Amino acid sequence: MHSSLQRLNSVFALATSVLLCLLAIIDTMSTPRRNPTGSVAIKSLETVSGRAIWHMDRRTQDYIVTSFDIQANFTDLFRWNTKQVFVSLVAEYQDAKNQSNSVVIWDRILRTPSSAYVDLQDEQNKYGFREVSKSFGGIDTTRFTLKWNVMPKVGQLHYGNEFASSALKIPSKVVEVPASSAEGGAASSPKKVKQKVRQMYY
């Protein structure tokens, strides 16, 4: 005869096994079958000297201001077990020490299939694109990737990339403007003018 404790242990082991199998089935059925469709166009990059208004670190530092378009349809990521989909545009670059860095510059939470189509025109950074060292000097290029993350009601998270740009050159803060010349005289050589410090509302 088995004791009550042994019987309880057997029931608990069986229930745990059934629950794990059920969770595995739910997770398999919740895996996205098709990737979303869409595109991202990076229209402009501008490196400016800025000072954050709402961030605790308000020292003057480099910021990259980006303008971009996004047209993407994430409807295929919504299934019966989908709670929400998190979408983000991430800037990736290597710093002067060849260490990889990722900065989220825009994101959105999609809660229903009706909100799963993203159509943005001339959108700018939602979050500040800045470097830990305070300067993008010595950093030549950056790439942009549109990422998605499916958050299910039950099961593990699912990740994917919808779009990855080619390497884009990071522009310099210093711009050249032609110096004024006297009437009838030869034009003087261009001079370099540093940009003014902007107030960044991040």
Descriptive overview:
This protein has one helix at about 5-30, and strands at about 35-50, 60-75, 80-95, 100-110, 115-125, 140-150, 160-165, 170, 175, 190-195, 200. The strands form three sheets. Strands 3, 4, 6, 7 and 8 form a five-stranded antiparallel sheet that branches. Helices cover about 15% and strands about 45% of the residues. The N and C termini lie far apart (about 70 Å). The protein is built from one helix and eleven strands, in the order αβββββββββββ. β3 (about 80-95) and β4 form a beta hairpin. By secondary structure, the chain is mostly beta strands. It has two domains: about 1-30; about 35-175, Immunoglobulin-like (Sandwich), CATH 2.60.40. The mean pLDDT is about 80. This is Signal peptidase subunit 3. Belongs to the SPCS3 family. One of its GO terms (cellular component) is signal peptidase complex. InterPro entries: SPC3 (IPR007653). One of its GO terms (biological process) is signal peptide processing.
